[in-house]
């Protein structure tokens, strides 16, 4: 098995092959983020780093012997949480570089397989553009079936396909995975955050919630704010934790089994700040997700973030919590990739 992984990130594809006990002879990784490369080489020192995808014509790769090309092209211009400038945006248009690479490889090896992923919130027009460029329409799978988080994604692959529609268009024929019924509460390590963890989070570039017991108000404390507390949309009402939402009622109640998302604390139009039973989707921008237990509201720790993407608890131990969150939020859900690869009959060309 020889694999080229574009936008490799933390190397989910390589880990999937390892978990499936499939031997990989050569695994080429195109990645430019230093700590992503560090994590990949920590787990798999034999991975061959080839650098920026824009320089692919300079790579020393025997394309005729490549069996699979993986691609998680940037979603920033496609996602509802991004710019929505579309597939021709400055980042998401790197998808077309993947298409160039795939077409080049196909000329030398018509049997090469591919796996491409992108967000489920991508505009349908852009989904159509990508599908026509690849010659196959995607399957849509939400990671909530296999982990404790919501993560709606399109997967284009020719690992298994079927014709559909009056024109016999080709569609990826990967069935939905079995629901493992993993809930948000199942991935939590505990309901308490100690002072050391709080200090570490306050020293980061990301937001941390604190509880002012006298005013029964939750505040956001920002790095560099010199102790200034900014009133937030989260508050205690007779011992009940509530978060303001753009609904008729005006708020949602947060319980110990819920996940609280404060990605846009100043927004006046947000509705889904609380999800019942599942965590909200992790994002590349280190989505601020919180767990509530008793009188403690805390961010998710590194172990819990790994679990939300189906990785072992200690997978990101060599990285900081925030670097881990960035890679996990920008990465693939490991059990979903294993599920898709399981339908590949590798005995056939």
Task: Provide structural commentary.
There is one protein chain. This protein has 349 residues and is an alpha+beta fold. The protein has 2 domains: 2-175 and 332-341, Rossmann fold; 190-300, no CATH class. It has helices at residues 12-19, 34-43, 95-108, 124-134, 184-187, 195-202, 302-308, 321-329, 334-341; strands at residues 2-6, 26-30, 48-49, 68-71, 113-119, 139-142, 152-157, 161-164, 169-172, 208-212, 217-221, 229-237, 240-244, 251-254, 258-261, 274-276, 289-293, 296-299. It has a 7-stranded mixed β-sheet with strand order 3-2-1-4-5-7-6, covered by helices on one side. Helix 1 crosses helix 9 (334-341). The chain is globular and about 70 Å long.
Short description:
The protein is an alpha+beta fold and 349 residues long. It has helices spanning 12-19, 34-43, 95-108, 124-134, 184-187, 195-202, 302-308, 321-329, 334-341, and strands at 2-6, 26-30, 48-49, 68-71, 113-119, 139-142, 152-157, 161-164, 169-172, 208-212, 217-221, 229-237, 240-244, 251-254, 258-261, 274-276, 289-293, 296-299.
Helix content: 10-25%
Q: What's the helix-strand series?
A: EHEHEEHEHEEEEHHEEEEEEEEEHHH
Could you give a short account of the major beta sheet? 7 strands, mixed
Count of spatially separate domains = 2
CATH superfamily (homologous) name of the largest domain: Vaccinia Virus protein VP39
* Low-pLDDT residue intervals, each spanning 5 or more residues: 192-210, 212-217, 219-231
CATH architecture of the largest domain: 3-Layer(aba) Sandwich
Helix/strand-derived category reads: alpha+beta
The largest beta-sheet arranges its strands as 3-2-1-4-5-7-6
Which word captures the global form? globular
How far apart are the termini? 12 Å
Report the radius of gyration as a whole number of Å: 21 Å
CATH domain fold name of the largest domain: Rossmann fold
How many separate helices?
Answer: 9
Per CATH, the class of the largest domain reads Alpha Beta
Fraction of residues in β-strands: 15-25%
Number of strands: 18
